[in-house]
Amino acid sequence: LDAIRFSLIGWHIGQPVRPRMIFEQMRQVGVDAIPIVSMLAMTIGIMLGIQFIAALSEFGAESQVIVASAKSITREFGALITGIVVAGRSGSAFAARLGSMMVSQEVDALAVTGVEPVRYLVAPALIAMLVMLPCLTLFADLVAIIGAGLYSAGPLDMSLSGYLWQSLHLLTPRDVWEGVSKSFVFATLITLIGCATGFSVTGGAEGVGRATTRAVVLSISALVIADMLFSYFLNR
Q: Rounded CA gap, 22 and 124, in Å?
């Protein structure tokens, strides 16, 4: 809650969040994750193309492969896979960084010098995550749809450009927004769980290792549960 408060009104109460720190976190959270997100999104897209072609061809419904792939990617897989990747990268990094600072008493030193630790350490990460995770999700959606097209265009006897055009034509704003809205919740969960776990570290270097593992496990578990709840309430 303090991180959200400082993000929104920190400038008004004399505790602004530094833009330089936000941009650095955006680079670490978003830009540095592009290669692994691209690889996994492409793989997921190809996998979905293989599965939908195999399953729907049994019922003579190959024409539904495009819409099934596009909607499942934008509504479900794009946001979830991106969230899991970022939780593994950034959630663990938040916990390890803050845990190390707790062990070395750097957090206490910040408080003594009048710097609010949450404003200085957590708020920039939260803002960066709220900006970059939705962007990564949209990017993953596009890459995954291209991956599905690379496999499915041949069996469907159409060009890749035709597959992509038809995919975009069949998608609705709600399909895209459903995945993006999940990413905002995922961003908040990853940041707060990672940082809270880091702040709770005790026991030296061994405690940092345990906290890092716990942050990843809790973050991914929270993401899967949140995704299930989103899917249930948005598709009733």
A: 5
